[in-house]
Amino acid sequence: MREAVVGGSGPTPFTIVARSADPLRMLEIGLAVGSLLALSGGAWAWSSLAPDALLLTGFWLVAGGLGFGLPTGLLYHLALRRTLLAAGRLPARWWLHPIGLHPLVPPERAFPVMVWCRLGALGCGVAFLGCAVFALGALRTTLG
Length: 144
Known about the structure:
- It is a single chain.
- By secondary structure, the chain is mainly α.
- It has a domain at about 50-144.
- Helices cover about 65% and strands about 5% of the residues.
- α2 packs antiparallel against α3.
- The longest helix has about 35 residues, at about 50-85.
């Protein structure tokens, strides 16, 4: 992190320190804003949408997320295996913790592996969203 002191050369009652953006803090802000948006969206859906619409939307989000995420996740694992095997860095039981093996992927071959990884994660996220929407619909049906 780079720091720059802003102010005059003499003693001052306070010093302003300008810092560059910290990626970890930016991630925390994104998670906080995303959580607030998710809670707000859930509250809106609870009060505005019929339970049947929530159940149906949740079902199709889960089906679509799994239908997209499972094949792309498989392609990610195959691409990771192929890349690590070609580089001579494929450990035993590599499929148990594949994300930890990303530093072993040669930089010139990392792009296709990471594209499939992110696409599989997107499908998983859509399926999780569908589970949450379906659960919201089920709660709304049960609780009235």
